[in-house]
Write a structure and sequence with these properties.
Largest sheet: 5 strands, mixed
Number of strands: 5
Structural class: alpha+beta
Number of helices: 12
Helix content: 55-70%
Distance between the termini: 57 Å
Strand content: 5-15%
Length: about 425
């Protein structure tokens, strides 16, 4: 019964670890989608409520306060339909390459001039809506330059000011002209900004994927170069052992010794090749810390938040995690240990706390650079960070490492 229970524990640990990794991946994907939604440009229906600016004109039509109300009603319907068509096609990636948005905008301009020259008054509010539609249709990306947008909006604004002066009065000239000018340029600027941010995000993701693919290709080439010749030698010598064993045991033993030496050398070369990968993966050290704490009977609480870290920062924090958790296991006598990594755009903070009564050790774990916490303090100081360690209240120990994050260092590393 005891054996079966103990045998089931590693499987449960690996299964729970796999579930945690899956949960973390799902959380990262959800956060990515949330950021994408947050930076998503206004949708097609976001501009339709602006048609309520014409509510006063529609009320005048129903009251019969304007001549030929049926003609004005047809004009309002035509204006609203052409406005919706211009907005929808101007924001549709598939329709943007066609002439439909431009035809809709031309129809809107014709109806706008007809309504404002015929009725004046509140009908002049058609010009800001016309300018808004022009900002959508003629924004950057739909035309070769911004000159066409500027000329069209300035023409609409000037026309609105002139017609307002003739049909509405001098007091409305500046208001209508300014509103027309502002609505078009602001709409075009906002949409262009959203699209530029989306393009930059896609480019950054593509560059990241390309960097990962290049690194994988380089690593596979390194492994091929390391193992190709070695495995060929091992195969040849193994065949020699098989041939020599029946008739010359001493020679076969010599060949087997050569296989052992070649294998050990291959292991050494592989370790040297992958050392950089292990050092630059903070997530790997956190997973190892969780496994070590669980195996030592200490309840782990591992937390990580913030953007991805550059390889150099991740490598340094990986050593801090290894040293700090090793000290907890060896010297603290704790029942619980918390490891928290909080990353920001310009700084990352790592904090390791336990509820034991031990103290930090000056003995570094095997293979780590420097001399325990002293070596880590020097390494962090060289990178512009600092490390503090000491008792945490009446009971327990706290290790805090703070390190500045330079985004340019990651780009330099990739290039």
């Amino acid at each position: 019964m005891t054996d079966s229970t103990s045998d089931s524990k590693p499987g449960n640990r690996s299964e729970s670890k796999s579930e945690r990794r899956t949960a973390r991946r799902a959380e990262r994907e959800a956060n990515r989608k949330l950021r994408a939604e947050r930076h998503k440009p206004p949708g097609k229906f976001a501009f339709l409520p602006w048609l309520f600016m014409l509510t006063g004109d529609v009320e005048d039509l129903f009251r019969g306060e304007v001549p030929l109300p049926w003609l004005g009603g047809l004009g309002v319907l035509a204006f609203a339909g052409l406005y919706a068509l211009a907005v929808f096609t101007g924001l549709d990636k598939r329709k943007r390459a066609t002439r439909v948005p431009f035809y809709a905008l031309g129809g809107m301009a014709t109806v706008t001039y007809a309504l404002t020259l015929g009725y004046g008054g509140d009908w002049l509010l058609c010009f800001p809506l016309l300018s808004l539609a022009a900002g959508i249709v003629l924004r950057r990306g739909m035309t070769e330059s911004g000159r066409l947008l500027s000329v069209v909006i300035l023409t609409f604004a000037g026309s609105a000011g002139v017609i307002a002066g003739i049909r509405g009065g001098p007091s409305e000239t500046l208001t209508v002209a300014y509103g027309t000018l502002l609505s078009g340029f602001v709409t075009a600027a906002i949409l262009s900004l959203f699209e530029t941010v989306a393009e930059l995000r896609e480019t950054r993701e593509e560059l990241a994927r390309s960097a990962v693919e290049r690194e994988r290709l380089r690593f596979s080439r390194d492994l091929h170069d390391l193992l190709g010749h070695t495995m060929s030698v091992i195969v040849v010598k193994a065949e020699a052992v098989r041939r020599l064993a029946p008739r010359d045991l001493d020679a076969a033993i010599g060949q087997a010794a050569d296989i052992e030496a070649v294998g050990r050398q291959a292991l050494t070369e592989i370790r040297e090749a992958v050392t950089g990968y292990r050092e630059s993966t903070l997530n790997t050290e956190l997973d190892r810390a969780r496994s070590l704490l669980e195996a030592s009977g200490i309840t782990p609480d591992i937390r990580q938040s913030g953007p991805p870290l550059p390889p150099q920062s991740a490598a340094l924090l990986g050593w801090v995690v290894r040293e700090g958790v090793t000290n907890v296991v060896r010297h603290s006598g704790a029942g619980r240990c918390t490891v928290e990594v909080r990353g920001e755009t310009d700084q990352v903070r790592l904090e390791i706390t336990d509820n034991g009564g031990g103290v930090g050790s000056d003995a570094a774990p095997a293979g780590s650079p420097g001399n325990g916490l002293k070596g880590l303090t020097e390494r962090l100081a060289a990178a512009g960070g600092h490390l503090t360690a000491g008792p945490d209240g009446r009971k327990g120990f706290r290790l805090v490492a703070e390190l500045p994050v330079d985004s340019e260092s990651e780009e330099d590393h990739r290039s």
